[in-house]
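Dear support,

We are seeing what looks like truncated structure output for some complexes. This example has two components. We would appreciate it if you could run it in full and send us the complete token output so we can diff it against ours.
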Amino acid sequence: MSAPGEITIFVPADTAARSVGADAVAAAIGAEAARRKLPVRVVRTGSRGLLWLEPMVEVATAQGRIAYGPVGANDVAGLFDAGFIEGGKHALGLGPVAEIPQFKRQTRLTFARCGLIEPLSIADYRANGGFAGLDRAKAMKPSEIVAEVMDSGLRGRGGAGFPAGIKWKTVSEAAGDTKYVCCNADEGDSGTFADRMLMEGDPFTLIEGMAIAAMATGARQGFIYLRSEYPAAINSIKKAIELSEKKGIIGDNFRLGVRVGAGAYICGEETSMLESLEGKRGMVRAKPPIPALHGLFGKPTLVNNVLSFAAVPWILANGGKAYAAHGVGRSRGTQPFQLGGNVARGGLFELPFGAGLGELVNDIGGGSRSGRPVRAVQVGGPLGAYLPPARFDLPLDYEAFASAEAMLGHGGVVVFDDSVDMAAQARFAMEFCALESCGKCTPCRIGSTRGAEVIERLRAGEEPEKNLRILNDLCEVMKDGSLCALGGLTPMPVKSALAHFPEDFGPATRSGAS
Amino acid sequence: MSLIKETDYGTPARESDKTVTLEIDGVSVTVPAGTSVMRAAAEIGTKVPKLCATDSLDAFGSCRLCLVEIDGMRGTPASCTTPVAEGMKVHTQTDRLARLRRGVMELYISDHPLDCLTCAANGDCELQDMAGAVGLREVRYGFDGANHLVGEKDQSNPYFTFDPTKCIVCSRCVRACAETQGTFALTVDGRGFASVIAAGADDGFLASECVSCGACVQACPTATLMEKSVIEHGQPEHSVVTTCAYCGVGCSFKAEMKGDQLVRMVPFKDGGANEGHSCVKGRFAWGYATHKDRITSPMIRDAITDPWREVGWDEAIAFAATRLKDIQARYGRGAIGGITSSRCTNEEVFVVQKMIRGAFRNNNVDTCARVCHSPTGYGLKMTFGTSAGTQDFKSVAKADVIMVIGANPPDAHPVFASRMKRRLREGAKLIVIDPRRTDLVRSPHIGAAHHLQLRPGTNVAVINAMAHVIVTEGLVNETFVAERCETEDFATWAKFIAEERNSPEALEEITGVPAAEVRAAARLYATGGNAAIYYGLGVTEHSQGSTMVMGMANLCMATGNIGRDGVGLNPLRGQNNVQGSCDMGSFPHEFPGYRHVSDDAVRQQFTALWQAELDPEPGLRIPNMLDAAVEGTYKGLFVQGEDIAQSDPNTKHVTEGLAAMECVIVQDLFLNETAAYAHVFLPGTSFLEKDGTFTNAERRINRVRPVMKSKTGLEEWDVSCRLATAMGFPMHYDSASQIMDEIAVLTPTFKGVSFEKLDRMGSIQWPCNDAAPAGTPIMHLEKFVRGRGRFMLTEFVATPERANRSFPLILTTGRILSQYNVGAQTRRTGNVAWHPHDVLEIHPHDAEERGINEGDLVSVSSRIGATTLHAVITDRVPAGVVYTTFHHPMTGANVVTTEYSDWATNCPEYKVTAVQVVRSNMQSDWQKEWAERETEQKRVAVAPPAAE
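Here is the complete output from our reference environment:
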């Protein structure tokens, strides 16, 4: 909402942008405008996710939003000189945001508003399609809302990919007066940041999604379990809740609280998260009973990831079928993929399921940042498989990945060039598990430590055949015997490294055994 | 005899109307819905390997040994956490499962010391069993990796050790502490491989909140938590199921033996009262039975200033009989009497009262219930028609509102408290009426909805105020009252209670409890669903003890909270057999079964069977005996298993009475305080030597079985028989079982009871008769024992004992967990680690006013006497109230207490004594005298004195 003659300049306040100097850029723009006595209003937004271009500054013009980046504070005077406030040409000029190739090829449903609007402006949010889903849901019966989610084919974006509709239906139909909706915002996977970006850049989308979930399930209390490492997201979501309550968007019928985690990866596992929400030590619960029936404080509880809830407003506004029109097979809709590691163009790219892994890594990502050949990517966080370029033909689809003994997880993709030691990466998987295990089940508690030790012996060339056998046996015990996915999935990076990069594991594997 | 190994079904039993049929390894089994696959397998004898599962704890799913394969289900689910489903086909042994289980065991053993042969759990270790079951043959990881094999053993607890090097982090101890005991003292510290068990904030067991109940030791599958007695003696080889001899909960234990050496006491899963749980006393504090202080030979002396002389049984019996007969010849038949023991068996009590009525030829028999629960007997008989708690302990699991009045179950009835706390954690609401902030008021995961912190001595005012609210706010259950109660009595009572002077507002100044709190508590009790009352000596030991019991009974009837599961009115009995000793005719006016001695028809029955002339006049109560002794008309007393010189009020008066007698016969394990005034000491038997029955607070008759031979050479009941016979009234039984048969003939509520039946059924709750051959868990179901329930008027009358300027504080007394009653048993065990001395709790305000600092020696004086003890400053007691216990004789708490007593039953008013507390630098005169007496009057001659 700009006054006549006012020039609006958008600078991301997203943590990733700030980490490369966005605050200084915003300050420099303000100062330069004042010096030049120009009626400039600087709006801090979320990020568009094109992280190699951050800080990416946008200017509202008659031709739409024109982008410049990456902008340093030192570049600001030059930009003014070049007339960037009218979209003038400059070496950092990127043209209209919508035309940036890596942006243009995305299908931004969940992240449509992220980077576009002022995150804590309800007016901005509404003006850009916000609350359309909630408004529609208000006129629907809970079963009808559930049916839309079911139709959309939405699957849990936390990693497991469980059909959201079935979960919603179970909680909705569960007996009991007290129910909860809980958002898992303990985004701990290495190389992932989508939850954070959404909560910082478009927090009302999450609140709207949870409010719709509350209507569908009959919950009157919701919690967002947010990791302490995300102070800006905590701040943003708390303020957004406050504003929503003030505006009566949520309130007596649905109270929403934020609970801040204490740094345990395992609390991103839904049952540990529930334990932690109850004020207990973050320990995994055995299932059954499933949280949908016996969750927080023993009540029926809907637990979904940030991205799952955030997909819901679009689904309700546009219909489940419209959402399901995107994607392939049983993987419907879009997934905000997060590309990081040794990559030329890192960032968040929302793509329909079915796009190729190579397309993401090479075409969008532009290969490695170091310029050396890409040797491996790890998809799906620290427990995901390592895949070589030979498997870049894999479509980004839950089932295709599963059949390749890999997983999409929360959509994180980390790129490694040819300097990587894959045996060290395999050991790291075990070490990560040993560090982050809750310590409840034996395979994870002891197995991860033993796994790291065995891999180290392999690397040292000690009794390679024997140790390889032990490692394979251990992986089976961990995969089939662990209580939760942490121990159960730790073998995935290990086995994939063994399968695709045997030459890194010492003499036994170099000969081809695995 | 062999070691009893109870089947561990892995997960708790489930109750359900629906059953599910499934197939396990091709065998069909039908179980209640909700049962785990593991338990279903155990039901048909199929053992699925397990380590973290045990059927006293909820399934946890951590060890991953119990994995199974189920047709149509992905992966290998854990059988402990997977519920059965109709038509399910389960496979418990496949190659894949064998591989996984062996792999898991390989991981366990890669971090475990290989010292099985020298381990205290060798032969009784689940880890060892599982290694065998899964066929672990090698640990390919070797033993060079990270491990926990170096660690300090925590030996701080007197009874068990914690060896972290043997821990497999199954969390059974942590879960037992939480789920079974409800103390939450244990936790897992660290995570992942670094996970270790910690007590408190890693304070060590003794310094932590641990109450040493033993649940963790019981739950531990390895030698990590291990009884020191097992470490010392090795594994037991046979076991005998018997009953604990401490409080009125009456826990069943397996006494695990090695020959006649008791190695450990293990709570028995099939015990009706405790269902496998225990407390620090029953589980561990049994060492007194073989303590060096124990006297096992009879002793006599001419005067109490003489040293004791050890003699044979015949000489001791003859000496006692001669003296008693001589007294009766000189002072009359009524100049002697006896006191039965609430710690002895029903059979022993029955025989003592028979001896008194038959051989002493009077009804001068009383029991220690006089000083604890006699008002319960009176009050419940007047209102409901019988003197007993209305529920079984299990009933508390169905209660929605639990009102605890003048009782401190976590300290005094810990195993029942654990049941109660479990229910409270499930969401039942709690009302506590107590001057003191007991642990129940606020403890982990428990908080009282209302704590009515009344002034000591105002119970009746509070209960009347609650009843006033119920009557005036229309909360009476009219249907129940009309159908089940005397309606005229109700109308009279309702009119009385509705009077404005009984309103919470009018009584607020007297009780000190805000009226709004009383109103809220009353509404909760009346409208919160099933409401159950549990009470203790804080109700009975008052000048209006009986009134209060009736006041609570009125409340139950007015709200219909009586006569079904989950409700009722329940005295928490102090001693193991208080209920039984009362049932067995220990009162001067009642024969066994609470029938009056003046009832000709009843008396005729006893006369006929016993072949004795029986006195139709009631005899003397304990206080009357002592008064008469001081007056010079009462000269001989037989006291079994009670120490009135320590436990009864106004010690000075008690000892004056004892000193005035010519023949005091004490039968006990130890030379107790009363024995200092005795002429004959007859050694008693510990519960480990007894054959008989105890009856607990829920009327449950439990078998007490001897695990070793009597250390005195005689059964305790046989001693009474011999004394009776020596006095000219022949009494003889071949066995305790024969005594029970006589009890059954003479006591209608015991008609169907026999040892054979008890051995068959485990335990029986009386009434057990033709109408209820299997006993009666819950009473007054269809109608009250007296027919219709009777409302009684309960006018509040303040006690004459009042604070004034000279005695401005009110002393109230109670108990603590680790000590028991006069402490004769617990002081002779490791329990002194927790409570080496009695202390005086005083509010910070009262302490500051008197310049008293923590730990200062203070003098506590009443109108009667004075003693000194050390001060503990705490706001657990309100200002104006001080609190102590009477577990140590040296404390002399009862030197201070007065002789005011319940108007109906003479139960002493231990709970209200006006006192002054001042700093002191020396012991009281009484304590100095006590120390002198301790050496003078308890001397035992080394050899018989040489003839002059």
